[in-house]
Amino acid sequence: MSRVVITGMGMVSPLGVGVKHSWNALLAGKSGIVSTDSLNDERYEKIPSKTVGKVPEGELAQGGWNINEHFQKGEARRLATFSQYALAAAHEALTDANWFPTEIEDQLNTGVIVGSGIGSITDTFENSIAFGNGGYRKVQPLFVPKMLPNMAAGAISIKYGLKGPNHCPSTACATGNHAIGDSYRFIKDGYAKTIVAGASEAPLHPLALAGFARAQSVATDFNDTPEKASRPFDKERGGFVLSEGSGILILEELEHAKKRNAKIYAEIVGYGLSGDGHHITAPSPDGLGARRAMELATRGIDLTKVGYINAHATSTLIGDRIENNAIKTIFKNNLDFLVSSTKGSHGHLLGAAGAVEAIFSILAVQNNIAPPTLNLESPGGAEGDNIEDFTLNLVGPKPVEQNIEYSLSNSFGFGGINTSLLFKKYTE
After folding, report:
1. Superfamily assignment of 4-260 in CATH?
2. Looking at the annotation, which residues are catalytic?
3. Which of 4, 83, 160, 355 could form a disulfide with 247 if both were Cys (CB 3.0 to 4.6 A apart)?
4. Contact at 8 Å (CB) between 214 and 172?
């Protein structure tokens, strides 16, 4: 069957706009987490969690978000924020891959699989209020197409004339991994030669934060020092930080990429997915679903060659502990690999998390460097932890250089959804 490689990448994240800006900020130990006070919205005041990961504003050359640099006047008004982020990241990825097909055969063989966990909660909320206050005529004509989760994929397809498979996973926090993994399978099965794959999310709205706060999922202990709020695997972890952004990758059939002399970042060689069948928000205590996803992604390879794992670890008490134990169970005594969660730096991008972290996992392979887990000071020791279980080689606040042949990237979501992707250093 066909081999599948990554030939382009694009990103909009709390660490910066652009892959280079985000990666450099990550390695430098910078944080994209800010106080909700900076959002200038009084509706956040009574919500107990007051930290979010926000895409920085500013000029693109400095890694900031300036909508006028991405869209013509009037164009942005037709697009929800999550679709705007996806289009910006897709443009960077397509430019990086040097792939803007104009021949019909190439367009038919280029798909778009871009998901979103929530779509536009802002448009849903605002139009609900408008309808309640003023009735039918106060609802925006573009309300439905703006809020639909699949509209990011649709917008990318329309803008670039891409006529291949068009698909939108919407699987909570596993969305990005599902999009990339499904793209991998679609190419191997012959549905396309190239796929624009990833996810986008723009959930920074008081209603979303309030909902996660009511579910007791988000951090509340570091409201005065937001840069310390997201602390995966740490003793003082207490919930995730809600964040926004987008990650887009260009997946391509190897021979197609070689024929056009495309640069190749890495090869994708494994995809695992499973369900817990346990609870709507809590992971299964035995970690069986997480283990199953990782086992499927790594089947057929020598586990001693895995050099880095990008953990899903969102900074929650239960989730981080279960993932830690699941990794140990699979790898048993082969624990020389490095593990980190980049969410310490950028928070939890929900559906887009897997896509952004896949890019970081690919860069880890390419550069032989495991990115840091910001704020990881004391592994384990939180309520319910057995500190003796936290014996993985967890990367702390500083990156670690090590030869990385394979990297594994995990994403798990509400509903008991588990996904893992395996990337490999590209060789002929």
Report:
1. Thiolase/Chalcone synthase (3.40.47.10)
2. 173
3. 355
4. no
